Amino acid sequence: MNRSPPSTLQTPGFAHYGLAWSPFHNNRLALASSANYGLVGNGRLHIVGLGLGPGGLPQPGIDKFYETQDGLYDVAWSEIHENQLVTASGDGSIKLWDIMINNLPIRAWQEHTREVFSVDWSNIAKDQFVSSSWDGTVKLWTPERPRSLTTLQAHPSCVYQALFSPHQPDTIATCSTDGTVRIFDLRAPAYLPSAPGASTFNAPLSAPALTVPASGGEVLTLDWNKYRPWLLASAGVDKMVKVWDCRMVKLGPGPDAAQNPNPAVGGVCEAQLAGHEYAVRKVQWSPHRPDVLASASYDMTCRVRNAMLFVLHGRSASATPGERNSNAQDEHATKRACGLRSAGCVARVEGFLIPTAYS
Amino acid sequence: MDAQNSPSTSGDPLGRFASYRFADDAEYQQGLAGILSSGALQGKSEDEQEELMLRSEVFYFNRVSGASLDLDAARAIRNGRKLGIDFAPAPVAPPPQLPPKDKEQITLTFAQIKELIEQGKTDNIPNNKVIPNVLSSETPSESRTSVRKKPWEAEATA
C-alpha cells in the first residue's frame, strides 16, 4: 500500500502540545507549543493555514504566531467568534487572542495557581469556556468577565483535561492523576462532606454527578462521543484506551449531594483498546462517526480504530486497574463497572456493541 | 523529500548530499533527537560532535536515497563547502559569536537543559526571553462569520 507521505510543518525549538481546528474555517488550525520540553522558557501560539501543496495535497504553513512567557499546553477556538481563541499556559495564565491583532492578547486571566493543562470552549453555551489545572480545579469563564464564573474543586490532584458535553448543557467531564473520570453538573455546585480523617486535602471537593474509577494510574485524556451522549473514552499511563457508558449519571440540583455521603460511583466499561506501548496522551472521537476513535501515545504512534471491534463481553471484561483498589467504594464501583456486565449489558447499548472479544 | 530539498540536477549522490537540508527533514530530525536525547554528544569535543553528526547524516542519506556514500567522501565535500547555511545542522552548538537569531534556533537535549537548570544557567537556554505581560490596546475584530453546525448536529436535524 503506497500512501502519500503526510504533510508536515516544522516549528524549530517549539514542540507541539495541543492543536485545534477552527470551527469556522476548514483550512485553519491553531497549535499550542512550548520550548525546551516544557521545562523552562517560552511558548508560542501558531496560527496555521492549509494551502495546496504539490500533487494537490494540503500543505500547512504558519500564518502568524504569538509569543508567550511560559509554555502553552492547549488551545481552543471560540465557538462564537471566528477570530478568537484561548490558550492554557504553564504559568497558570489563560489568554484570549484575536488573530486580527498582532503580537499581544486581548484578555488575560490569572487565577490558577499551577499549570493550566486544558481549555475547552462550549458548543452549547457559546460564550463560555472551561480550563483545567494541575492545581486540582476546573474553572468556568466567559470572555467578557474579568473573573471566573465558577470554580470546581474537581480532583485532589492534577486535572489533565476538562471537556463540555457536546449534547448536555452545563455538563463537563474531567480526568486526573487520581485515576478517575468525573462528570460535573455546573448548575449544582455542591461540596462533598469531608470524610473523617481526610485531613490531607484542605479544600473540600466539589460533588461530582458521577465518578468513574477509570484506571489504577493517571488518566491523561478523555473525550465525549459525538453521537452517543453519555459515552466517553479515557486513556492514560496504563496504555489502555477505555470506553465508558455513563448513562447511570443523575444530573440536577443536589440536595442529594449534601445529604448523601456516598457520591455516585459508576460507569460501565464497554471496551478496552490495548496496543499502545507507552502512555496515551490524547484520545478523540471522530466528529463524523460514532465508532471511530483516535489515540496518540508516547510510543510515537497515533491509532485510529473502530472502537466497536474492541467491545468487552462476559467475564473477559473483569480485568481493569480499578480492581486493584480495595476499599468498599471502589469495590462497588468495580463491580458495577466490570464484574456485573455479562449478558445484560450487551443488550443495553443497542447498536453499539459487537460481541467480539479482543484479549 | 520535496523537489526544493534535492536541488541537484545531476544524479551525483555527493552533490545531493552536500546540498541536502537535513535541518528541514522531519524524519532525520526525529531520529537525531532520539540520538541526542540518549546523551550521545555529551562530553564530546566540538570535532567529535561534528563527526558524530556527519555519520548520522551519511547513514540517513544512504538509507533514504539508496546511495552508498562513504564517510570520507562526505567529509571531504562537506569541509569543502563548510558553513553553507543550507546544511548547517541545527542541533550542534554553534560558536558563541553567532548572532542571537541563530541562538534561538538551537535545540538543546533534555539532559543539557536539565544540567543548565541545575547550574542556574537559565540565561544560556534558548527561547527563554522575557515577554511583556500586557494586553493589546487595539479594538478586537468583529465577528462576520456565522456559526456552523457540527457534523453531529447537522445529522440530528436532518
From TrEMBL, chain A:
This is Peroxin-7. The keyword Transport applies. It comes from Ganoderma sinense ZZ0214-1. The lineage of its organism: Eukaryota, Fungi, Dikarya, Basidiomycota, Agaricomycotina. One of its GO terms (biological process) is protein import into peroxisome matrix. Belongs to the WD repeat peroxin-7 family. It is found in: Cytoplasm, Cytosol; Peroxisome matrix. Keywords: Cytoplasm, Peroxisome, Protein transport, Repeat, Transport, WD repeat. It holds the Pfam family WD40. One of its GO terms (molecular function) is peroxisome matrix targeting signal-2 binding. The keyword Ribosomal protein does not apply. SMART domains: WD40. It comes from the Eukaryota.
Automatic annotation (TrEMBL), chain B:
This is Uncharacterized protein. It comes from Ganoderma sinense ZZ0214-1. The lineage of its organism: Eukaryota, Fungi, Dikarya, Basidiomycota, Agaricomycotina. Residues 108-153 form the Peroxisomal membrane protein PEX14-like KPWE domain. Residues 134-144 have a biased composition (Polar residues). It comes from the Eukaryota. Residues 124-158 are annotated as: Disordered. InterPro entries: HTH_76 (IPR058841), KPWE_PEX14_dom (IPR040554). Residues 15-79 form the PEX14-like helix-turn-helix domain. Pfam families: HTH_76, KPWE_dom.
